[in-house]
């Protein structure tokens, strides 16, 4: 399970656990620390650079800052900004050698054609996959294209989705009740979470099904 081994998170779990105001739950599910690459969250980046070069959390932060004239926008902006100072997040940088080489391969212009993708993989997903597959860690990724590529280039890498993390938290001996998990899931859906891709099936349930 995720808490028994290192797991590297893409943007989705950080974004939606934070927006649902339950980021501490993600920390507990993952055993006390949320690992993510700097392409997902960079606590010290310069906002003067091109928006396309910002981490994905900063891009989300900027999106909600433009909606800060509403209570919902202010809440989202503050919750995402708080991630920059969270002591329970471990930033993992790409290391010289195999990790950077694998990252470059995943960002290659040839990758979409090789794997039948509509577009290249983003910086954050490529970093997550490069780091995790090289270090033998699991990953938390919801994106269909990323799942397909990872299954091809690193079939031994364990893959979890954001929804599966929540299910794990509400499973036998978990830290949530079924009702609590369903409320968190409903909040995530309200903030825009649209399910995950797993085993060739797009997962878009209206409710979280928990077996307790």
Describe the structure in your own words:
This protein is mainly alpha-helical and 212 residues long. The chain has a single domain, classed as 3-Layer(aba) Sandwich (Rossmann fold), CATH 3.40.50. It is built from 10 helices and 7 strands. The strands form 3 sheets. It has a 3-stranded parallel β-sheet with strand order 1-4-5. Helix 5 packs antiparallel against helix 7. It is globular and about 45 Å long. The two termini are 16 Å apart. 40% of the residues are buried.
Describe the biggest sheet?
A: 3 strands, parallel
User: N-to-C terminal Cα separation, in Å?
Assistant: 16 Å
What's the tally of helices?
10
User: Number of folding domains?
Assistant: 1
Shape, per Cα inertia axes? globular
What oligomeric arrangement do these chains adopt? single chain
Q: Mean pLDDT score, rounded?
A: 89
What is the number of strand segments?
A: 7
CATH architecture: 3-Layer(aba) Sandwich
Residues in helices, as a percent range: 40-55%
* Class inferred from helices and paired strands: mainly alpha
Beta-strand proportion:
5-15%
Low-confidence stretches: none
Order of helices and strands: EHHEHHEHHHEHEHHEE
- The fold-level CATH name is Rossmann fold
- In CATH, the homologous superfamily goes by the name 5'-nuclease
Highest-level CATH class: Alpha Beta
The order of strands across the largest sheet is: 1-4-5
